[in-house]
Write a structure and sequence with these properties.
mainly beta, globular, 2 helices, two-stranded antiparallel sheet
Length: 247
């Protein structure tokens, strides 16, 4: 007996509903002694950075924010930056698995509330190889404010922590490069050049099947003397810790 169109629609909707329930969500909030992005020290004192991530069938959506806990910065139109959200990033990405690696393509929209800074959008791609030391290539192009591209090559290495049973280290290093437009906008240096470098170490530990903690250490700096010439904090040591939950 042929199934009616209505029954087929009901079966299809039931399948979509079942698939929708398989979205994996996680929430993490971290505290850092400062906020540094691509070698730029945006906030030189403590910040909170919450993050909400949902993943389904290779798709990922992420919402990430920066919250200033001190009055070290005074933003446009405010007497103090303390207790204000100063950045909110929204990202949609799609991951593809290959025999030897993975490819991820995404778009990130950057908002800067309470700062007077215009929002902007980047399209990006990341390619990583599957091996003990996982090298990767990341490329981003800003289609709004910067109208330039940024590229980064690096690698990650994961290993168990010898001192804490069940904990794992992820060690990484990277080197960034910016186009003339990108470097001019972010660093005030009107030429294409190496942008930033960094080394980081992240320790992760699962408290339960659904909760975990992290410890993050990093050292990062600017590669070119012309980048942010005369500005303080051209190299930075960053440390932080966080707590996350899956649901």
């Amino acid at each position: 007996m042929q199934r009616s169109l209505a029954s087929l629609i009901c079966v299809g909707l039931a399948g979509l509903s079942a698939a929708a329930t398989k979205i994996d969500w996680s929430f993490e909030t971290s505290y850092y002694n400062k906020y540094v992005w691509r070698g730029i020290n945006f906030v030189n004192e403590g910040v909170l950075q919450p993050s909400l991530t949902g993943s389904w069938n290779g798709w990922t959506v992420n919402f990430w924010g920066n919250y200033d806990t001190t009055d070290v910065n005074t933003y446009y139109g405010t007497s103090t930056g303390k207790n204000r959200i100063t950045e909110w990033d929204s990202t949609l990405s799609r991951n593809f698995d290959f025999e030897s690696g993975t490819g991820t393509f995404g778009v990130t929209h950057y908002d800067f509330p309470n700062t007077g800074t215009a929002s902007t959008t980047e399209f990006w791609a990341n390619f990583a190889l599957k091996q003990a030391f996982s090298p990767y290539l990341y490329v981003a192009y800003d289609v709004d404010e910067t109208d330039g591209f940024y590229a980064k090559v690096g690698g990650n290495y994961s290993m168990p922590c010898a001192l804490v049973k069940g904990a794992n280290w992820n060690l990484g290093a990277w080197l960034g490069y910016g186009s003339e437009d990108f470097n001019n906008f972010w660093y005030g240096n009107n030429e294409s050049a190496l942008a930033d470098y960094g080394f980081d170490a992240k320790l992760s530990y699962n408290f339960t099947e659904m909760t975990y903690g992290t410890l993050h250490l990093a050292y990062t700096g600017l590669m070119d003397d012309g980048h942010r010439a005369g500005a303080p904090n051209r190299s930075n040591f960053v440390f932080g810790f966080g707590f996350g939950a899956k649901f």
